[in-house]
UniProtKB/TrEMBL annotation:
GO terms for biological process: copper ion export; plasma membrane copper ion transport. This is Efflux RND transporter periplasmic adaptor subunit. It comes from Bradyrhizobium frederickii. PANTHER family: CATION EFFLUX SYSTEM PROTEIN CUSB. Belongs to the membrane fusion protein (MFP) (TC 8.A.1) family. Residues 58-89 are annotated as: Disordered.
Length: 473
């Protein structure tokens, strides 16, 4: 590269020096003028050397660019002013630690410089960095990012446990009518499967030779021994009728009329719905044959399957809201009666029994339902909002608002979750304020400042001997 350099010295009053002019073979002119006393310039050491073409490049020692041009020295009075003007007295009394990238990138410089977009690097003064582990933000940045804090309070945590299931009959409210001796069905009442019956309502007439024989024996006993009465002489004969499952009203009627009936009228033992009718007029019923099955469905069970992971939140007596898929807008309230002591090895679920009132018989056996179990134990615990937690997967932390724009990252141990809140078991005290909104922005600022501090501490070690440390006065 062929370079022509002209040097002209003008002595004007104070011996000012006019800088150099040069012309490159590409045909472009550039000028660098210095207006400093010649004697002072000879004794001054440059802070650094910048690219002669204006590119964001600098060097701690003299060098040339790729076109052979010398890097230009920059002295104290040539530095660019900070982005935010400060009072002269305050700026001179504070030491500049380093300059950080104006766009927030993890790039620092010990001396002033510009980024590729021409923006000045921002000085970081001594005192702006805190060593107490807190993050400090300006009021303007807090307002722009929408940072909000909320004090830690004690509240009841409600963990929503949902479980599917089906409606089943209460085993204690099912009755069957079966013959205990060989019998014949003489007549069946107008009762069919699905019919609602009342306790004592006639169902059928039965003839049984065993029942007739026992009835005759009982009547003979109580009529012949009138002195001692039934209690002394007729107890065994009466017990035989009871063992044959003769209804109590039939026995009472025999004692009153002293007449043995030819057929026995069998009645419903309870209020309920006829689930099964096997009795047919004229049929022969062997001992053990079930002729009717009646169930009281005013109280039913909801058998739901709770996931194994939620088993620790389930306890007997907890309230449950059950929704039947057949009645989307209706809620049936009940309580947990039994938690079955067995885990299904295929589904990893535990069966839970919920007792439900069913006065209008809307819930039918084998109907699908969904249960919402209220697991609140009533004891308030220290809790924070879900949005307050910064979860890395291996540890959880929150940002404690210390006031005056300072935020302290603090690790916490969490417990139950529910209703938008999380139980805090360790790490926070009642009344402390934690950040609930824009906490991830503060976390990013904290990580950025930690990275910048690491760059700043490493920068002086990487600088050559005698290089300026970036102190700005």
């Amino acid at each position: 590269m062929k370079t022509l350099r002209l040097l002209t010295i003008l002595a004007l009053g104070g011996g000012l020096a006019l800088g150099a002019y040069w012309f490159s073979n590409e045909g472009s002119w550039s000028v660098h003028a210095e207006a400093t006393p010649a004697a002072a310039q000879a004794n001054r050491a440059p802070l650094y050397y910048r690219d002669p073409g204006g590119a964001p490049l600098w060097s701690a020692a003299p060098k040339k660019d790729d076109r052979g041009r010398d890097y230009l020295p920059v002295y104290d009075d040539d530095q660019a002013a900070p982005a935010a003007p400060k009072p002269a007295q305050a700026a001179s009394s504070r030491k500049i630690l380093y300059y950080r990238n104006p766009m927030g990138l993890p790039d620092t410089s010990p001396v002033p410089k510009k980024d590729p977009m021409g923006m000045n690097y921002i000085p970081v003064y001594e005192g702006d960095e805190v060593d107490d582990g807190t993050v400090k933000l300006s009021p303007g940045k807090i307002q722009r990012t929408g940072v909000k804090s909320e004090p830690v309070e004690r509240r009841a945590i409600r963990v929503a446990v949902k479980a599917p299931g089906t409606i089943q009959l209460d085993e204690r409210r099912v009755s069957v009518i079966a013959m205990r001796a060989e019998s014949f069905v003489q007549k069946v009442a107008d009762v069919t499967t699905g019919t609602r019956v009342k306790a004592g309502q006639p169902l059928m007439e039965i003839y049984s030779s065993a029942v007739a024989s026992a009835a005759a024996e009982y009547l003979a006993t109580i009529t012949s021994k009138t002195v001692g009465g039934v209690e002394m002489y007729g107890r065994g004969s009466r017990q035989r009728l009871v063992n044959l499952d003769v209804p109590e009203p039939v026995i009472a009627e025999m004692e009153k009329t002293r007449v043995a009936p030819v057929t026995i009228h069998w009645s419903a033992p309870r209020d309920g719905i006829v689930l099964e009718r096997s009795a047919i007029e004229g049929m022969r019923a062997n001992p053990g044959d079930v002729l009717f099955r009646i169930a009281d469905i005013s109280l039913v069970w909801a058998l739901v399957d709770v996931a194994e992971r939620d088993l620790g939140h389930i306890a007997v007596g907890q309230s449950v809201a059950v929704r039947a898929r057949s009645f989307p807008g209706r809620i049936f309230s009940g309580k947990i009666a039994v938690v079955y002591p067995q885990v299904n090895r295929e589904t990893r679920t535990v069966r839970v029994r919920i007792e439900l009132a069913n006065l209008d018989a809307a819930l039918l056996p084998d109907m699908y339902v969904d249960a919402d179990i209220d697991t609140a134990d009533g004891a308030p615990v220290l809790a924070i909002q879900d949005s307050s937690v910064l979860d890395t997967g291996t540890r959880q932390a929150v940002l404690v608002d210390k006031g005056e724009g300072r935020f302290e990252p603090r690790e916490v141990k969490l417990g139950r979750r529910g209703g938008g809140y999380i139980e805090v078991r360790e790490g926070l005290a009642d009344g402390e304020a934690v950040v609930t909104s824009a906490n991830f922005l503060i976390d990013a600022e904290s990580n950025l400042k930690a990275a910048l501090k690491g760059f700043a501490e490493a920068a002086p070690q990487a600088s050559p001997p005698g290089h300026a440390t970036g102190e700005h006065k």
